[in-house]
Amino acid sequence: MGQRPTNDPNMIRIDLGRGKVLEFVEGDITREPSDAIVNAANSSLMGGGGVDGAIHRVGGPEILEQCKVWVARNGRLPTGKVMQTTGGRLPARYVIHTVGPIWHQGAHGEPELLASCYRESIRRAEELKLNTVSFPSISTGAYGYPVDQAAQVAVHAAADALKTTTYVHTVRFVLFGSRDYRVYTQAASQLQGGKAQ
């Protein structure tokens, strides 16, 4: 569980050193064999459109039931924070739910909140002793975050978070559409010390 073939011609890998890699692939996150996939959830955790809706549809009702229990105990999930559920019928063992920021021209701490989504998700995967975690492009759909700016935040936050992990060694960005894939791989090419494979 958790690995794609490393010779997949449709994947770009950035070697960060010390066994840590970022991977970029165009695809459907609900089919990812990572130990955990990240859901771009809304704060109610009741499912929705886009990635959120697809994860709930494919994963089945067990995910929503666990979300309801969590909200009953804790209230709505704040922006930039995380919680996890089972993967249900997904290939992934876990779904890590996080709430991305709504774009307000960058004037309300959006970059910091978006970076927190990535950092906190990787931290939770580390707490669960997982090796691989896959992300969608958080906040760039209905929440309106410009993809080029979101990609810069996402790639740098993930690379920084990997510097301190023991268990998590692979972060994969699963991008819906060729444009997002191109923007994210361009952002990754600017990482200091990263080597494309």
Word description of this protein:
This protein is α/β, with parallel strands linked by helices and 197 residues long. It has one domain: 3-Layer(aba) Sandwich (Leucine Aminopeptidase, subunit E, domain 1), CATH 3.40.220. Helices cover 35% and strands 22% of the residues. The protein is built from five helices and eight strands. An eight-stranded mixed β-sheet has the order 4-5-3-6-7-2-1-8, sandwiched between helices. β1 (11-17) and β2 (20-26) form a beta hairpin. The longest helix has 18 residues, at 110-127.
Ends apart, CA distance between termini: 22 Å
How many beta-strand runs?
8
Widest sheet: strand ordering:
4-5-3-6-7-2-1-8
| CATH homologous superfamily designation | Leucine Aminopeptidase, subunit E, domain 1
How many independent structural domains? 1
Describe the global form.
globular
CATH architectural designation: 3-Layer(aba) Sandwich
Helicity range of the residues? 25-40%
Summed over residues and divided by their number, the pLDDT gives a mean of 93
Briefly, what CATH class?
A: Alpha Beta
Structural class computed from helices and strand pairing: alpha/beta
List the helices and strands and how they pair.
Blueprint: E1 11-17, E2 20-26, E3 36-41, H1 50-59, H2 61-74, E4 82-86, E5 94-99, H3 110-127, E6 132-135, H4 147-162, E7 170-175, H5 178-188, E8 195-196
Parallel strand pairs: 2-7, 3-5, 3-6, 6-7
Antiparallel strand pairs: 1-2, 1-8, 4-5
